[in-house]
C-alpha cells in the first residue's frame, strides 16, 4: 500500500530549539537537559520560507499512522516545515528507491534496514551525518554505543537507528499450556531448543511441529556463528568456513529426522518472512523465529496467546541491533533540517510516546525509560521486557553487513531449501553457497 499526504504547513509558532525538543507531555526534565538530548541548547535551523521535506518508509498502516502523527508534532513546533510522505509495504520498496536513486530524486528522509545501509553509503546515496553528530545537533549520546556503531560505515555515521530490536522465538503459549510443556527460555542452547521442539511434536501427536526450520534464516545462522566465536562477515568476506555451514545444516537435518520441524513445503511457505505466513500464526508449529518488535503484529493475526524469548544460544551473541534506520539523501537541499528531524524522531520523548514500539524499542535509553511506563498493550510489554532482560547481556556490535548481503541472504535460503527438499546434500549445497556468496561479496 502507498499513501501520499499533503504538506503539513502552518504558521505562527516559535521554531526555536527549546520548544522543538523540550515539550515532553509533562515528562520530568533530567539534569542533562531532559529526554530530548544532552548539553547546551542549540538553535534549530530557522526557516524564513516554507519548506517541504519528502519522507519515504516501508511498513503497514499502523506504522504510517504513528509516523505521520510524529511528523505533525514536528510541524507544530516548526510551522514552516511540512512533509510530503509516502509509504508502502516491504515488497518492492528497495526497487522503488533504486529507481529514484538513478534519477537523483531520492526523498530527503528515508528508512533503510541493515541489509542496504552499507551499499547506500558506499554508493554515496545517503548523507554522511558525522558533522551533526560531532556537535550534537544530532544528539546520539543517549543511545547505546553499540547501536550508534551499527549505523556507521567506514567510520561515518550514515544512519541512525529508528528503533532497537532482537531476534526472537515467538511461541504459542496457549498450546504449550494445553500440552503441559515448558515455554522456551532465553539462554537455552540450540541443542536444548531442538530437543524441546521434538517434545512438542510428540506431545501434540504430530498435529503440530515444535519449531519452524530456520536453516535458511540468516539471523539464526549469524547468531549461531557468533555463539561459537565466528561471524557472518569479516569486512567484505564471509566470516566462517564451509565446515561451519555443514554443521548448521546437519543440526537441522537431525531436527527434521526427529520431527521437531514440519515438512519442507510448509517451511517454504514461511521462508519469505511475511507475518501472516509465520507458522506459529497459521498453527503449523508451536514456535517461529521473528524480530521482537513484530510480536504485536503477529499477535493480531491469531487468537492464541503468544510469548517471546531470545533466539537460542548465549545472549551475548546478540547485539544492540537497529530494526531499521533513518537516513538522509545525500542530495537533499536541507541537510541540517533533515538531521534535526532525525534527532526529533529518535530522541524526543513526546515523539517516542507516540511511536511506541511499532518499530521496536526507542533507540534513546532516556526516551525508552520514559515511554515504557506508559505501555499498556500486553504484547508490547512482552517485547519491552525482552529488551530489558537482554540490555546488559548483549555482545559487541559487528559492522553492518557489507555490499552483497541481500544476495548472500538469498543464497543461504536457496541452499537450505535444496537441502530440505532433497535436491542437494549438505556438502554439495554448502560448496555451491560458498562459491556464489564469495562472488557476490567480491562483486
UniProtKB/TrEMBL annotation:
Domain of life of the source: Bacteria
One Pfam entry name: SBP_bac_1
InterPro entries: Bact_solute-bd_prot1, SBP
PANTHER family for this protein: ARABINOSE-BINDING PROTEIN-RELATED, DIACETYLCHITOBIOSE BINDING PROTEIN DASA
Name of the protein in question: Carbohydrate ABC transporter substrate-binding protein, CUT1 family
UniProt source species: Micromonospora peucetia
Amino acid at each position: 500500500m502507498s499513501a501520499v499526504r499533503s504538506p503539513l504547513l502552518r504558521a505562527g509558532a516559535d521554531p526555536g530549539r527549546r520548544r522543538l525538543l523540550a515539550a515532553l507531555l509533562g515528562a520530568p526534565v533530567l539534569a542533562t537537559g531532559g529526554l530530548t538530548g544532552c548539553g547546551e541548547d542549540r538553535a534549530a535551523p530557522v526557516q524564513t520560507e516554507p519548506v517541504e521535506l519528502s519522507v519515504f518508509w516501508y511498513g503497514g498502516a499502523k506504522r504510517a499512522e504513528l509516523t505521520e502523527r510524529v511528523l505533525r508534532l514536528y510541524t507544530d513546533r516548526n510551522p514552516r516545515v511540512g512533509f510530503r510522505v509516502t509509504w508502502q509495504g516491504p515488497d518492492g520498496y528497495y526497487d522503488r528507491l533504486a529507481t529514484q536513486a538513478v534519477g537523483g530524486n531520492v526523498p530527503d528522509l528515508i528508512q533503510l534496514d541493515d541489509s542496504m545501509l552499507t551499499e547506500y553509503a558506499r554508493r554515496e546515496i545517503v548523507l554522511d551525518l558525522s558533522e551533526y553528530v560531532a556537535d550534537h545537533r544530532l544528539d546520539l549520546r543517549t543511545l547505546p554505543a553499540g547501536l550508534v556503531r551499527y549505523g556507521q560505515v567506514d567510520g561515518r555515521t550514515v544512519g541512525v537507528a529508528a528503533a532497537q530490536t532482537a531476534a526472537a522465538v515467538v511461541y504459542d503459549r496457549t498450546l504449550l499450556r494445553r500440552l503441559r510443556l515448558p515455554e522456551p527460555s532465553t539462554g537455552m542452547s540450540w541443542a536444548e531448543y531442538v530437543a524441546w521442539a521434538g517434545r512438542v511434536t510428540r506431545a501434540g501427536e504430530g498435529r503440530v511441529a515444535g519449531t519452524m526450520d530456520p536453516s535458511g534464516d540468516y539471523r539464526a545462522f549469524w547468531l549461531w556463528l557468533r555463539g561459537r566465536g565466528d561471524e557472518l562477515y569479516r569486512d567484505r568476506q564471509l566470516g566462517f568456513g564451509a565446515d561451519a555451514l555443514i554443521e548448521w545444516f546437519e543440526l537441522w537435518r537431525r531436527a527434521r529426522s526427529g520431527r521437531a520441524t514440519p515438512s519442507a513445503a510448509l517451511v517454504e511457505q514461511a521462508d519469505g518472512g511475511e507475518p501472516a505466513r509465520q507458522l506459529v500464526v497459521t498453527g503449523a508449529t508451536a514456535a517461529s523465529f521473528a524480530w521482537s518488535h513484530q510480536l504485536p503484529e503477529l499477535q493480531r493475526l491469531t487468537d492464541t496467546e503468544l510469548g517471546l524469548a531470545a533466539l537460542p544460544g548465549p545472549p551475548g551473541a546478540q547485539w544492540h541491533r537497529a530494526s531499521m534506520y533513518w537516513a538522509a539523501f545525500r542530495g537533499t537541499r536541507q541537510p541540517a533540517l533533515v538531521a534535526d528531524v532525525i534527532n526529533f524522531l529518535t530522541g524526543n520523548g513526546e515523539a517516542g510516546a507516540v511511536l511506541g514500539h511499532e518499530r521496536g524499542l526507542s533507540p534513546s535509553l532516556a526516551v525508552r525509560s520514559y515511554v515504557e511506563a506508559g505501555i499498556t498493550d500486553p504484547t508490547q510489554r512482552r517485547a519491552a521486557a525482552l529488551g530489558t532482560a537482554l540490555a546488559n547481556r548483549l555482545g559487541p556490535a559487528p559492522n553492518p553487513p557489507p555490499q552483497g548481503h541481500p544476495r548472500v541472504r538469498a543464497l543461504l535460503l536457496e541452499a537450505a531449501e535444496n537441502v530440505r527438499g532433497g535436491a542437494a546434500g549438505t556438502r554439495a549445497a554448502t560448496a555451491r553457497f560458498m562459491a556464489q556468496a564469495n562472488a557476490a561479496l567480491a562483486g
